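Two folds, back to back.
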Amino acid sequence: MEPERPLKPEHGSENPSPTSSIAGAGAVAGMGFQFALSILLFLLAGQWIDRKLGTAPLFLIVFVFTGAGASFYSIYRKLVDQQRRDDERRHKK
């Protein structure tokens, strides 16, 4: 039986550059801000419609879940796109 060899990290992945770390942190913070803002805007829209129609809390609940779902989907799409770009960049090297 052959002894296990440790996996070698990809070239350039041993020490990521500080700028890529900062850019990654900024992207994650931006996604969090987008998520919170989306839910807040949909919440306020739901409250406004409920006040106009007298249907509290029906539209508030529907809009909060709609905003959260739309925001999750947007974040998912961004992450999938980023992963695809990273994979393409790795394969070019």
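---
second:
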Amino acid sequence: MSNPMVLTGRPDGTTARSVEVLSGLPAEFRLIGGLAVLCRVGVPHRATVDLDALARGLDHYDPALRSVALSAPGGGQYLMAGRLELDVIDVGESDAQSLVDQLLATGEEITDLELNAVGHTWAHDAATPLDLVVLSELDGTVLASASDRLVASPGGLVAMKATTVTLRASSKPEKRASDLYDLGRLLSSTDGWAAELDSAPAPLLDAVRARVRQWFLDPAGVDRTFRDTRRFDEVRLDLDDVADAVSEAWPN
């Protein structure tokens, strides 16, 4: 294992359990969600309580996952060892550009839900491998490791987060807040996300750019983003840093 991404955690803590479960998942699965953000922005970051992944052809993997899960409610959800929740999203067979072409061929405007599917598909195909190691924050011993795991890239995570925020129901403002917080950390703490997104299908790139600028550059949007994200005080999100990063990447 060379140049691993080193995370810290407690024995039997969520981070260690997540990486341990991840090590046993099919190699084709792409890690997304809170653990992927943690890997890309580095520590510290907000705590994550479950494990999220993308897969192409989930039906193929479902029997094996069910055989090791404590329970499988359906819809890509599994309760794994240590009572860790695993949520796997099936992105389908088409790549992102083919999916966009199919949607545009209908003559209808691409909906927010469809754009979110495009974002997840593109993120699946843009994932890159990482070696993960969790060290005990108490004595530095290795608690868990997962080698050569495909993890959503910074650009892929930005695309998914930016297309998910608008789908969050008003009844779950904490989900919108956590997505905006993660998005802000990714924009200000990672490199290369803008260059990655240049290769995304045009409708996805245009939507992500417009929404990111609205939430982090537009005064009214920034005010709401501040109110949404201020609840996360472990690492305060510096909105000036985010605005600088967005302005540098997308000046117009």
